[in-house]
């Protein structure tokens, strides 16, 4: 069993649930681990508490029940090494032992078990389950700025890349990465620039981090201040033909919520109404265009 704690305002609540990998569980699989969060300094900019809060609201709003929650394992170093090079592995080990204090701008080794390999394990499990069942979501991940040799922009390991590499190389399946985080998926684009089985599609704000963009298979750079309708039509201008021509076996969707108008780093103007419409339209595009397509979502 796993205990999950989350903080809401000043009140800390603790769920005590029996979550294990349940092969008999029904309904949409939601992948979550209580260690998706670690302690950060109180004034730290990265809102790590969002990961358990996603799960909290799924329960609170009665969207899911306990038996839909799957607990991932940490991604093995064999799988990680498919994407991370020697330099990256050395850096990661030094980071984990606390030797590197400021490897990332943000995350510091406050716990020996840092969440990043767990995000990656969660995305791998989501990919597996999506291939088996058609759809699965993880409450964390989408760490698309991580490169093979170094981490960047709050991202230590590229969970999307590890999962896409596993599915494309080991399972010989085609993967489409749809990255709608407001920032370009630069690490993912770099990793798959010469990999025909993985197609990277990124819609992002052009005048935003990272300053130096990489080349995805398809990049759509949008202007500051874009609103729901134009954002939606931008995605719809490209996704249908992409699905029709590339015909992926699995879609990994980085469902970043930072195009929202209230995101301090986002610069776009999507609303509470617009964001879910985009998610819903994406899901229906997939089922219309490719019945056999699997789907996996990771918010960052
Ligand atoms: Zn982002």
UniProtKB/TrEMBL annotation:
Keywords carried by this UniProt record: Hydrolase
Q: Which domain of life is it from?
A: Eukaryota
All copies of the Histone deacetylase domain together span 119-274
- What Gene Ontology terms describe what this protein does at the molecular function level? histone deacetylase activity; hydrolase activity
| Any one Gene Ontology BP term | epigenetic regulation of gene expression
InterPro entries, A to Z: HDAC_classIV, HDACs, His_deacetylse_dom, His_deacetylse_dom_sf, Ureohydrolase_dom_sf
* Protein name from the UniProt record: Histone deacetylase 12
């Amino acid at each position: 069993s796993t205990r999950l704690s989350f903080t809401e305002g000043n009140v800390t609540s603790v769920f005590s649930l029996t979550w294990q990998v349940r092969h008999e569980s029904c309904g949409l699989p939601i992948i979550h681990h209580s260690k998706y969060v670690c302690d950060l300094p109180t004034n730290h900019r990265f809102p790590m508490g969002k990961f358990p809060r996603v799960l909290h609201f799924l329960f609170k709003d009665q969207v899911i029940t306990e038996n839909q929650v799957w607990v991932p394992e940490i991604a093995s170093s064999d799988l990680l090494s498919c994407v991370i090079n020697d330099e990256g592995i050395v850096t990661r080990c030094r980071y984990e032992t606390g030797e590197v204090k400021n490897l990332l701008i943000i995350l510091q080794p406050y716990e020996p078990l840092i969440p990043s390999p767990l995000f990656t394990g969660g995305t791998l499990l989501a990919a597996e389950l999506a291939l088996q069942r058609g759809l699965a979501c993880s409450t964390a991940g989408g760490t698309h700025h991580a490169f093979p040799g170094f981490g960047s922009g709050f991202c230590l390991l590229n969970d999307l890349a590890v999962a896409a590499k596993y599915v494309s190389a080991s399972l010989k399946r085609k993967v489409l990465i749809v990255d709608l985080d407001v920032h370009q998926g630069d690490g993912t684009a770099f990793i798959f620039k010469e990999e025909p089985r993985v197609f990277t599609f990124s819609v992002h704000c052009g005048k935003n981090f990272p300053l130096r963009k990489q080349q995805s298979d398809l990049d759509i750079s949008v202007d500051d201040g874009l609103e729901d309708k134009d954002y939606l039509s931008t995605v719809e201008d490209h996704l249908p033909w992409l699905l029709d021509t590339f015909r992926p076996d699995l879609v990994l969707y980085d469902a970043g919520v930072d195009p929202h108008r209230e995101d301090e780093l986002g610069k776009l103007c999507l609303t509470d109404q617009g964001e879910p419409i985009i998610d819903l339209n994406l899901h229906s595009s997939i089922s219309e265009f490719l019945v056999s397509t699997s789907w996996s979502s990771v918010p960052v």
